[in-house]
Amino acid sequence: MKSSTAIFYMIFSVIAFSLMNAVVKYLNDFSAYQIVFFRSIGTLFFTMPLILKAKIPILGTHKKLLFIRGLAGVISLTCFFQSLNYLAVGTAVSLRYTSPIFAAILAFIFLKEKIKPIQWFLFLLSFSGVLIIKGFGVDVDSIGIIFVLLSAISLGVIFVVIRKIGDKENPLVIINYFMVMAFVFGGIMSINHWRNPSLIEWLLLLSLGVFGYVGQLYMTKALQSHETNVIAPLKYLEVIFMIAIGAFWFGEIYNLWTLLGVFLIMFGLLYNIYIKNKKS
Questions:
Q1: Closest CA to 38 of 187, 189, 177
Q2: Which residues of the chain have pLDDT under 50?
Q3: Are 95 and 148 in contact (CB under 8 A)?
Q4: Cα distance between residue 66 and residue 176, in whole Å
């Protein structure tokens, strides 16, 4: 598959995840466990019928890798939602998307994917942009940082595991493993943290699964289609989209430091893609 198609898939995925994050921010009165639970229900509504209709083996063929992907997904999602209880959403989202750096390092170690010295510099440059956006050292809770970095590392593991699986598993099976595990975990953990939603809140909670399904499907397609250290850094775009959503939906104001961080992220991201495409 052409790299341009894989890049399009990832950008489409990022838009869907950005909308999901915006809804999660709006629903911050609910526990992270209940949000994980509803996030899984909405997605399973799509994946289960499609798998059964297509008669796809629901357990897949790479069960250990699928289980690791599902477990990493549950950890990443839960820790991210937990971090929103301690950090501003812009800070949490920015820090979480250090994940492409972890993904590139893990892919370098376990998948032997090559990374040029200039790419290491660009990853560092992009990371510095994330630090600037989040306002490092200003009103940052250490517990929140621990949660969001655990989420980022787990997300990096997901990128590498999906790349390892490649196109040997149907994307629906990969997503379904994650969602079934999230459904069980979120359901059990939310028993003691349950809050009855209103009608509008029901719709918003269920929409998390729709946005999550679209985002997960196209992220999986993208990672199956091209090298991790090209596709994974595109997740940085979610920071940009969340800034736009924050400004227009939640009325957030961003200063010149934030704009500088955005520039550094975009420059590091786009130049890295240029170098990889030039190489190939």
A1: 187
A2: 137
A3: yes
A4: 9
